[in-house]
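Q&A FORM
Asked by: J.P.
Topic: structure of YihD family protein

PROVIDED:
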Amino acid sequence: MQCHRINELLELLKDEWTASQNDSLMTFLGKMAEEAGHKGDLRAMNDDMLIYHLKMRSRNSREMIPGIAKDCVDDFKSAILKARGVS
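REPLIED BY: S.T.
REPLY: Here is the structure written out as tokens.
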């Protein structure tokens, strides 16, 4: 795992875990896995799933995923022109 991913994960964990201070780290990670729909052993849960869930946890469920929102085009004509390289 790269250093920036570790820092990102720790920052996200700190913010969310602070809100539920009574939970141990493993209990909190178990809750995150359950909320994300992970079934099975926590050791099988990958870091991408945890980072994504922590980022999206406090957002509105109708809000667009940040990585997709930057590429979103309002109408079909603009999307076709963008795909063809005409902006």
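FOLLOW-UP: Residues 3-83 form a domain with the Conserved Hypothetical Protein Ylqf; Chain: A; domain 2 fold (CATH 1.10.1580).
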